From TrEMBL:
Gene3D superfamilies per the UniProt record, alphabetical: LysM domain (3.10.350.10)
SMART domains tied to this protein: LysM
InterPro entries according to UniProt: Bact_Kbp, LysM, LysM_dom_sf
Residue ranges constituting the LysM domain according to the UniProt record: 74-123
Species annotation: Jejuia spongiicola
Name of this chain's protein: LysM peptidoglycan-binding domain-containing protein
CDD domains for this protein: LysM
């Protein structure tokens, strides 16, 4: 199995996330990948996928993933049925971090219990 085949799910995720300036090369049994993710959250998704395939410290892949926007953790578009608590749980693993998301979006949110589909929320770096 080639390294590219082994890490195909990582490459597919990169395409799905629309990683910019991306490239992939295989040299001496090591897959080299690089590109630019939109946010730190997307960079983390790529690394999580690499570790899921290759283990905690894979030696058969080298990845250089840069981040285009370090000012936020992510930008989230609200889907029907979501709450700030659900969004906080997704990004931080803690429902109570909804307060941080609410504070970061106080320019567009006036009530933490009132968010609307298609609103773009800043998910702050914590």
């Amino acid at each position: 199995m080639t390294m590219k085949a082994k890490y195909q799910s990582v490459l597919d995720l990169g395409q799905e996330l629309n990683i910019q300036n991306g490239d992939v090369q295989e040299e001496n049994g090591v897959l080299k990948v690089w590109g630019t993710a939109k946010t730190p959250y997307e960079k983390n998704l790529i690394w999580d996928k690499i570790k899921a395939v290759g283990g905690e410290n894979p030696s058969d892949i080298m990845a250089d993933i840069k981040v285009a926007d370090e000012s936020v953790f992510h930008r989230h578009v609200v889907k029907p049925g979501e709450t700030l608590g659900k969004i906080a749980k997704h990004y931080y693993g803690d429902v109570m971090k909804y307060k941080n998301i609410f504070a970061a979006n106080s320019d567009i949110l006036k009530n933490p219990d009132l968010i609307h589909p298609d609103q773009e929320l800043i998910i702050p770096n914590l």
